[in-house]
Amino acid sequence: MPQPDSTSPERFVVIVVRSGGIAGLSKQWRAEPDPERAPRWRELVESCPWDAAATASPGADRYQWRIEVHRGDTAVHRARLGDAQIEGPWRTLVDEVRHAASPSPRER
């Protein structure tokens, strides 16, 4: 069975970037679920309140989060959130992306 290429609209990617904190470093996680798991991931994505996402409020030593969802080469959802806003469906999505990215234990 042929695999979709990188420009295929079936390609589904979720990117989470956390920046800030005491050291001010950025960390990025990326999940690209297999086609058979895509429906579950779409459900996770659609459960997030994208239209209600407030802009992240700046603060000293606080994490800021950027979450993007791409289908094909097009970003279909984008949000910037403060650390305190990463709860409920946002927390579930972030945790799933971090888990799917499977960094080594020392990178977590």
In what order do the strands lie side by side in the largest sheet?
Answer: 2-1-3-4
Give helix % range.
10-25%
Order of helices and strands: EEHEEH
How many distinct beta strands?
4
Number of domains: 1
Number of alpha- plus pi-helical segments? 2
Mean pLDDT: 82
Biggest sheet architecture? 4 strands, antiparallel
Poorly predicted runs are: 1-9
Structural classification: alpha+beta
Q: Give the strand content.
A: 25-35%
Rg calc: 14 Å
Write a concise keyword list for the protein shown above.
108 residues; 30% strand; disordered N terminus; four-stranded antiparallel sheet; alpha+beta; 20% helix; globular; 2 helices
Characterise this structure.
The protein has 108 residues and is of the alpha+beta class. It has one domain (12-102). Helix content is 20%, strand content 30%. Strand 1 and strand 2 form a beta hairpin. The longest helix is centred in the C-terminal third of the chain and has 13 residues, at 89-101. The chain is globular, with a radius of gyration of 14 Å. Residues 1-9 have low confidence and may be disordered.
Give a brief outline of the structure.
The protein is of the alpha+beta class.
Walk me through the topology.
Elements lengths: L11 E9 L6 E5 L6 H9 L16 E9 L2 E9 L6 H13 L7
Antiparallel strand pairs: 1-2, 1-3, 3-4
